[in-house]
Design brief:
Layout: H1 5-14, H2 17-25, H3 30-39, H4 44-48, H5 55-62, H6 67-75, H7 81-87, H8 93-101, H9 107-113, H10 119-133
Length: 134
């Protein structure tokens, strides 16, 4: 378990593959995740890659200014249901495309994404819809 924001930062910066793996797989308290996000926003991308973050942290990161953080969150297999609709309306087409390709995106959201003004988003949503109905 990661006990503090400082420990997480040390692990991120160490360059040791074992430490890097810990940043992606070790759990931390909600307070630790919040401290990293609030005081070290450049490490939100590292938090997003962790497989143990709680739903509340998913929600915070889904609203990140960093599109790459939102993309990582959108790819999560454990993405909370309520975030599909939020990320499906993201201003960045890359985030919407990730949601269009997600295996758990609700059909109603996929149908909306199939009408997206960006062809690559719409085509991915249509492909996902067809795949599911086969």
């Amino acid at each position: 378990m990661i006990d503090s924001a400082q420990e997480f930062l040390r692990l991120c910066k160490s360059g040791d593959p074992v430490d890097i793996q810990r940043t992606m797989s070790d759990s931390a308290s909600l307070e630790v995740w919040r401290n990293i996000i609030q005081f070290y926003p450049s490490h939100c991308i590292d938090v997003a890659q962790n497989s143990t973050i709680p739903n509340e942290i998913y929600s915070i990161l889904a609203a990140s200014e960093d599109v790459f953080v939102r993309i990582i969150i959108g790819k999560k297999g454990r993405l909370p249901d309520e975030l599909f609709s939020i990320l499906a309306t993201d201003p960045d087409e890359r985030v919407r495309r990730v949601i269009a390709s997600h295996r758990r995106t609700p059909l109603s959201i996929l149908k909306n994404l199939a009408l997206d003004s960006i062809e690559s988003v719409a085509s991915v949503a249509i492909f996902n819809l067809r795949k599911r109905s086969a």
